[in-house]
Amino acid sequence: MNAFVLTGGGSPGAVHVGMLEALYERGITPDLIVGTSVGAINGAFIASRPQIPETARSRGGVWRGLRRAHVFLLDFAGGFLGFAGLRRHFVSMCH
Prior knowledge:
The protein is mostly helical and 95 residues long.
């Protein structure tokens, strides 16, 4: 039985892509996929598609197109207010 355990954390999510592609190229596929945070997102993606290198490459395209602004909705005024203690957060959940 092969289990793929995909960790959480921002940049490890991108590292998963290379690992998955290498495993698929060698014919190693999971019987079980476990993930946390970004690993759960990547795990759901690969679980819903064929276990082939193209699936990993497709996920890589998502990671290559991702920019900080897509994840963190930063604005200078909001960050300053948070830093000054006038807000309870630095990054707003919505823009």
